[in-house]
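Lecture 7 notes: from sequence to structure.

We start with a single chain of 132 residues. Read the sequence below before looking at the structure.
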Amino acid sequence: MKTLDAMLAKDRFSEWMKLKVTHITEGSATVEMTIREDMLNGFGVVHGGVTFALADSAFAFACNSRNNITLALDAQISFIKKVSLGDVLTAKVEELHNGRTTGVYEVKITNQNLELVAAFRGTAHRTGKELV
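Now the structure, written as tokens:
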């Protein structure tokens, strides 16, 4: 998808996280990543910001899939289960509302055992400008 390619071409943070987009359609995306040692906090579990960043990136890919530059207005996350070194996380985005100027999205993050580790909900603003 042209919008995804354009976004990833300049997205150094997603590159650092080594995100792999496995599915994208209008309004939805699935993104995977593996937890590395440099993503752990002082307790030896993944830093919550890493899990949030995975959800936020998946949210961004889904929001922008219609080639309308879309920016986050609000986002919240619930951390449900700890994430550890070597875990493979999958973020699946579902579009709950696709309005002319706003969108609402839910992201469920599971581990390699299909256990829910986090739930994210974001509201987005559509600028009306095209990315590509």
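DSSP finds three helices and six strands in the chain. Keep this in mind for problem set 3.
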